[in-house]
Amino acid sequence: MPGITDVPGVLVGHAQDDLALTGCTVVLTMGGAVAGVDVRGSAPGTRETDLMRPCNLVERVHAVVLAGGSAYGLDAACGVMQFLEERGVGFATGAGVVPIVGAAVIFDLDIGDPRVRPDKNMGYEACAAASPALPAEGNAGAGLGATVGKAWGAQHAMKGGVGTWAVRLERPTRDRDEDGPLVVGAIAVVNALGDVVDADSGEVVAGAYDRGAKRFLRAASRATGPADDEACGGGDGDASGFAARPGFGGSAGQSAPPFGTNTTLAVVATNASLDKEGANKMAQMAHDGLARVIRPVHTMYDGDVVFALSTGDAPFTGDKAADITFLGAAAADAVAKAVLRAVTAAVSVAGIPAARDVPSRRQQPRR
Hints:
By secondary structure, the protein is α+β, with helices and mostly antiparallel strands. It has one domain: L-amino peptidase D-ALA esterase/amidase (4-Layer Sandwich), CATH 3.60.70. It has helices at residues 76-86, 120-128, 173-179, 221-224, 229-232, 276-293, 320-345, and strands spanning 11-17, 22-39, 46-47, 60-67, 91-93, 96-98, 101-105, 147-148, 158-159, 161-169, 182-191, 195-197, 204-206, 209-210, 215-216, 263-272, 294-295, 305-314. Strands 1, 2, 3, 4, 7, 10, 11, 16 and 18 form a nine-stranded mixed sheet that branches. Strand 1 and strand 2 form a beta hairpin. The radius of gyration is 20 Å and the shape is globular. The two termini are 39 Å apart.
């Protein structure tokens, strides 16, 4: 099966605490990778993202960390720095190397033990486990404590997770033998407020779910009200909209959800050469993959972030604008598939059902 480690120079490692239901995932590029980033959510928790902007000096990063633990989980990046420094990997200075490690986090403190979070040791362990093999999906690494479909409240959430996918593009004929296949891969940690849906049918795969009535509630209907009974679901949830529901503001005495309680994180990578401007554009276009399969996405309650990495030194077509366009489109495809893989590979924990545990929408009872 394809995954982000199909991209030459990319390693992935997971580490986790199975009892506390939290973990971290590290994407390593020991040779360095040109990096970009695009932050679309309004409640992000990040590290070293400003450095990846096109106008800033340092061009290459050596790792990206995706972690649970909310802002506490950013500490895992320190363990990644230690691992890389011990191997002489980093930005060269007169005083030694400084590994450049980007990071972003999800909120999973309400799933397991909130006193246990990804830390320096866990980040180091994830690096030690990193390999070019296909990474584990579902309840692994940063995906262990991830959930989706929380628009109707945590009691209706389903299991999120981590997933990966890759797309192969054919180079122009003259370059195929010399440069090998061109790959665009993605890994995603899915902890969204919204539902994860099949992009073609619109069917909910994992999302807000009424466990008593065994029906999906449709997260997006919290904002607009249901078009009909079937769209909403039924059971113990009504459809009076975001503004009138507890936890989403609007009424006196009601408060918004805690900072950063939902987030989808992704890393896209390619062995095609890109500069920082191109990598940032690829990250931007990759967000289209989230929009295809998560509804709603990029909300005020999500911290959605996509990192982009270029490990190669050969262009795709030689036309910069065309290269970015083709690669960005492929990145969106890979991200969308990785998100779906994340929820379909997940299994139930802490009483939270997974996609494999519930009937498809077509099999659900009509109200």
